[in-house]
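Today's session is about reading a structure prediction critically. Students often jump straight to the picture, but the first step is always the sequence itself: look for stretches that repeat, for charged clusters, for runs of hydrophobic residues. Only then move on to the predicted structure, which in these notes is written as discrete structure tokens rather than atom positions. Here is the chain we will use throughout the hour.
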Amino acid sequence: MLSSSNTIRTSDYKKIESVISKIEEIDGLKYKQQELEEGLDSLKTSLNGMEANTEEKNNLRQSNDEFWKKLEHMERYSRDFNIHVLGVSEEDSEDCMTKILNYIIRLGFENVEAEVENAHRTGKKHDQRLRHIIAKLYSRPFKRRLLQAAKSADGKAVLNEVRFVKDFTPNDFEIRKKALPLMRKTFEEGTRLPFTKGKLFVDGREVSIM
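Below is the predicted structure for this chain, in token form.
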């Protein structure tokens, strides 16, 4: 009887050990589950932060784009009263204003002093290259008439090698440079493509410039 009792106790003890082992295993799994849940919560928080950062970056990018568009618009407006005069001989202690007024008089305009606000050279002096003269005018209608006269056959003959051109913003200048081959091609075919505010138009439709 004693031997049988000892056998039962040993068997029960093994079962108890097995149960305890399973409980410990379950507790371990619960701990791992808790760790996974905490890691998932942390990941969700990180993702939410990334989404917030992405939205913030998008807002900042949009604000930056709007800022540069406004700045470009303001610079265009300011330069819209200017003309660049190319090919004018350069001397020490020169009077740019007098030179520009004389060229405008040659093109047939009168009372020109009332049309030009100021005139000056651009950039640093070079030995091998003439600097442009920028002249700021008082009105855009006069600017249009002046450019038209300067581009006419008679105007070109009077000005000789001197040229009057629009004053583009750096961004518009680069866009126009890309558009020049197409503009020249269509001009040779008898069509003039207007380039306005950084955009090229054909029959009133904007043309994409690659």
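Discussion point for the tutorial: The first strand starts at residue 82 and ends at 86.
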